[in-house]
Inverse folding.
């Protein structure tokens, strides 16, 4: 620690250069945090997915509906604790660009099976009691400036009302929910399945089922048991854990993870070059100074540590600042992309990884110059003096 | 002329001495190259996607959807409505009457080769007129499906990206077994991502009764569109939306293209800032190393302008080289890379190739030059601002 002032003074002997290097590293780590947040946004469904929840969908594709009567049969299956259903509505609010998920559900079932949706008990009760009531995630409400009590008109696309009333569904916003963690989607819109059936004629069908199992370890067996019941019927099912569905859904998008990792690699390579070059220059310029240090009795080891420490200090502090800035900027960035990526934050493990990379960057950029400084012989070094 | 001569002379001296600063110059070049490579590669995703969505579209083709629907997936038309649409004025007439096809557009789960997990592959049910409406479709292997049979033909890109879509293969979808009888191409367009079958077979399989989702018609001429559209929108029996095929598919790719553009630009801008700092370092040290030389020149009577230009020329040259290297790298690595992604608007997979266009390369190089300018201007100004006496005494 007693060498810290020396390190500090060395670092700032060329203010402009150190500043630019520092800033380029800050930017690199800001970018790293951003890329990790994007990656997380694509993958988040996977870690969010409950291990004790299964999804049962139509075997051919999720866009095909399942009979409503399956609910009782699934509920009766051994190992099933609870089951509820969801149905995709896919309507348009004002403009098709305002896309968000709307689902017709059984309110009590939904809130029971997704305990991560936190809602005020009063609002919950009002929603259950209000046939045309709807609830929405806090983020979605903020995006459109909705307040509880507002009327939300949503125009159906493929659902066709048969009751002769105006086509547009007008919902009463009776409540908003929050997620119990950062990674819960707060951009969905839920309303009564009964109301949908009332307006479009009772088809006796629902979109898909969410099943809570008693023992996550037996999830696969329960899934098989559910599918077996409906084998060879007119609507065969495919049941798997929520996690498995989330994974295959993420894979449908393509390998975003690999693309983002490739970009990060390029960014780091470039920054490493820039920082490494600067460090090398800084040490080269000071060759004679280092020789003087050695002359007055600094050991080779201390000189090595001094040079390495300088690089670590620069990379470490810039890296931490860059990561800190991206975390601070997250609320703003999140609002920019929330229409596409509802869940947007820098995951903590990415931050830890970032700090690791910052130190690695310091070691890599300071390593060679430090090694050269350690090997420096006084006579040669002083002789090189320009 | 004097000024120009000076500029040329100083710039040449400067560029000739580049070799001495090879280390830090190549760092700056690598910085520019990295930024341009990422910039071009990311935008080539959006470009490839746009091209695949536009390429198959003909100005002679119109699409009719239910009013209020933006995709075929969410549209719905009854059989009677499709008849009225086909009888409308402006529709080209062939030997079998109107050149038109009422179609169903659904998805079916087929495993993606790259991941082994199920993906939503678009399954289109068509009428016999579909091939006349889209002359771009060409069977390259096997044959067309026969009417009324559980037979499908697969687009070449679909067959490439998804497992089991080979001629002769039987697939179990729902209650039925389907046989793949042919592979078709469509000028590398969106249709090649699809699987086609007879609409009348698909209706019962997906329990759609006698309804369809869209009608594709071939127009008599490009100008007939207005007549056709007016006739349909004025018809009290219909509530439909009429679009040109290219207009429809361009809109279908909008969300994904916007997402890639926003993210791509965000990343590129940040990277550019980082690389510009690197370039600033390089140019400052280049100027510092030559400060005595520059001061000597100025003492000899060279003006500041030519010196400034020479420093800028060096920086811009490094940027140009970096831009070319980065653009070339992106072109070699990304161009033609085949992949498939989910298009949320149609809830189905679209297979496409990343495409690096000359326009993209040019904007990458312009981008690099802008970074080179920013990285060179401050050191250049410093070079001519430092008092001659101070610089001569320096070091």
């Amino acid at each position: 620690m007693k060498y810290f002032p020396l390190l500090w003074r060395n670092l700032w002997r060329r203010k402009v250069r150190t500043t630019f290097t520092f800033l380029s590293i800050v930017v690199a780590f800001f970018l790293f945090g951003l890329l990790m947040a994007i990656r997380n946004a694509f993958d988040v469904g996977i870690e969010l997915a409950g291990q004790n929840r299964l999804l049962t969908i139509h075997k051919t594709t999720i866009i095909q509906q399942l009979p409503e009567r399956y609910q009782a049969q699934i509920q009766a299956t051994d190992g099933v604790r609870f089951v509820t259903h969801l149905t995709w509505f896919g309507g348009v609010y004002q403009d098709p660009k305002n896309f968000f998920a709307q689902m017709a559900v059984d309110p009590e079932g939904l809130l029971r099976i997704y305990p991560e949706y936190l809602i005020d008990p009063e609002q919950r009760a009002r929603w259950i009691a209000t046939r045309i009531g709807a609830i929405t995630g806090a983020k979605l409400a903020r995006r459109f400036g909705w307040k509880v009590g507002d009327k939300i008109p949503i125009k159906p696309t493929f659902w066709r009302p048969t009751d002769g009333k105006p086509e547009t569904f007008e919902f009463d916003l009776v409540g908003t929910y929050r997620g119990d963690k950062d990674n819960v989607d707060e951009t969905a819109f839920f309303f009564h399945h009964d109301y949908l059936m009332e307006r479009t004629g009772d088809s006796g069908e629902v979109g898909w089922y969410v099943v809570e199992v008693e023992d996550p370890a037996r999830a696969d067996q329960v899934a098989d048991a559910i599918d077996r019941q409906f084998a060879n019927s007119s609507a065969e099912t495919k049941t798997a854990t929520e996690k498995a569905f989330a994974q295959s859904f993420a894979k449908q998008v393509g390998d975003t993870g690999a693309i983002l990792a490739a970009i990060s690699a390029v960014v780091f390579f470039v920054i490493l070059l820039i920082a490494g070059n600067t460090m090398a220059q800084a040490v080269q310029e000071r060759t004679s100074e280092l020789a003087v240090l050695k002359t007055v009795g600094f050991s080779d080891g201390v000189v090595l540590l001094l040079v390495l420490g300088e690089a670590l200090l620069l990379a470490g502090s810039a890296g931490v600042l860059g990561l800190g800035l991206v975390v601070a900027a997250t609320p703003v960035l999140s609002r920019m992309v929330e229409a596409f990526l509802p869940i947007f934050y820098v995951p903590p493990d990415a931050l830890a990884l970032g700090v690791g990379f910052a130190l690695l960057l310091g070691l890599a950029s300071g390593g060679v110059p430090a090694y050269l400084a350690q090997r420096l012989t006084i006579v040669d070094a002083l002789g090189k003096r320009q | 002329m004097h000024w120009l001569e000076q500029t040329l002379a100083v710039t040449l001296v400067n560029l000739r001495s580049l070799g001495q600063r090879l280390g830090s110059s190549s760092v700056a070049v690598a910085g520019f190259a990295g930024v341009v490579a990422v910039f071009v590669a990311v935008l080539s995703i959006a470009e490839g996607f746009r091209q695949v969505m536009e390429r198959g579209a003909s100005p002679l083709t119109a699409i009719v959807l239910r009013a209020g629907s933006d995709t075929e997936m969410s549209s719905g038309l009854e059989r009677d409505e499709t008849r009225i649409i086909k009888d409308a004025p402006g529709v080209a007439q062939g030997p079998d009457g109107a050149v038109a096809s009422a179609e169903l557009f659904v998805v079916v789960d087929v495993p993606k080769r790259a991941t082994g997990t199920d993906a939503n592959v678009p399954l289109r049910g068509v009428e016999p007129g579909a091939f006349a409406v889209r002359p771009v479709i060409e069977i390259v292997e096997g044959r067309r499906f026969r009417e009324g049979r559980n037979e499908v033909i697969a687009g070449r890109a679909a067959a490439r990206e998804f497992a089991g879509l080979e001629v002769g293969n039987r697939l179990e979808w729902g209650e039925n077994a389907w046989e793949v009888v042919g592979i078709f191409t469509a000028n590398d367009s969106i249709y090649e991502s699809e699987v086609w079958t007879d609409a009348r077979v698909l209706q019962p399989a997906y329990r759609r009764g006698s309804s369809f989702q869209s009608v594709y018609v071939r127009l008599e001429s490009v100008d007939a569109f207005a007549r056709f559209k007016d006739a349909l929108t004025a018809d009290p029996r219909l509530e439909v939306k009429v679009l040109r095929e290219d207009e429809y598919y361009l809109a279908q790719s909008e969300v994904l293209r916007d997402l890639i553009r926003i993210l791509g630009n965000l990343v590129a801008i940040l990277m550019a800032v980082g690389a510009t700092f690197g370039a600033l370092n390089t140019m400052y040290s280049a100027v510092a190393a030559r400060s005595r030389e520059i001061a000597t020149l100025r003492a000899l009577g060279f003006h500041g302008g030519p010196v400034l230009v020479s420093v800028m020329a060096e920086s811009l040259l490094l940027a140009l080289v970096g831009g070319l290297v980065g653009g070339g790298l992106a072109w070699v690595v990304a161009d033609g890379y085949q992949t498939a992604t989910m298009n949320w608007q149609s809830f189905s997979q679209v297979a496409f190739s990343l495409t690096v266009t000359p326009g993209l390369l040019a904007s990458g190089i312009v981008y690099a030059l802008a970074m080179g300018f920013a990285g060179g201007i401050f050191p250049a100004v410093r070079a001519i601002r430092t008092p001659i006496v101070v610089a001569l005494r320096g070091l």
Summary: Residues 88 and 228 of chain B are 6 Å apart (CA to CA). The longest helix of chain B spans residues 254-289.
